[in-house]
Amino acid sequence: MKLILTTLLVALVAIFSTSSALHSAETLPAQLSDAEYWQMISGFSEPSGYFQYPIITSNEISYQSVLPALMRTPRSGGAYLGVGPEQNFTYIAALRPRIAFIFDIRRDMMLEHLMYKSIFEMSANRVEFVANLFSRKAPAQLSADSPVEIIFQAFSRVPVDTAGIDEHLKEILDRLKTKHHFALSADDERQIRAIYRLFAREGVISFNSSFRSPGYAALMTMTDNSGKNWSYLATKDSYDRIRAMHQQNLIVPIVGDFAGPKAIRAVGQYLKDHGSTVHAFYISNVEDYIRAWQQYAGNIGALPVDTSSVFIVWSTAGMTTLSSMNGFARYQGSYRR
Known about the structure:
Helix content is 45%, strand content 10%. The protein is of the alpha/beta class.
């Protein structure tokens, strides 16, 4: 066994050390067709799996702390990979990748991202987005240029528009099924309805249905350690960038286990085929739950990276940190788990 694992590590290090040399000019598309987008979701995904905590919004209050360091290394184009809910949009807005893939073991999270996609497309600006996401009527005093703190303060005083929930759901599902022709099952539709009603019921201040969520307003008005807010709703520019990527089908949610047989490897092969590189992979604390470390390490080894590629890692101690994806030193101890 020791010989097999040593051989595996040597092979994986070789993959990493030669990956940059193998890249040709990046040929990622400027837009995916609806058919291509759905084929990625259905073709790259694995069967839905179980996660022990209900996660609907992020619960990582240090998530912006790594962004100043992350942005000090110039990057252009390439791909962003992530896990979980809306926290990814903030990292994508800052990094400006050509394409993004968001993995989660639960099909529910893929459906939540499809719900987000519809709401971004429906919403010309941040005020409309918050109104549509939480089924609230937009306060008259807000404009497209209102500061994010003012936007959430205003919405915190607005009751849910119960009469509008079904109308919003109809538009969300019509966009997915009729405009985009995504093949949602009846169960998928029921789950999207349930997720949307959850946002409407919870509102912008607290989100008790999501494990340890500080609430959406808190997540969107947090800052890094120097006081800068990087959230995807902090500025018109950040919001517009995420909306444009959704309109171009370039934020692709995938159902997949990090140690599973297909999802990460399929994305890695797609990026290799297009001469692209993973610039950042937000993995949260997923490694705390991985048992098949050999499979996980092999999946990560299948991704095209360069010397600037990083993991964004959150720990249960409340720290968010960066670590290099280039090389396998971080995994050498993993096989002893």
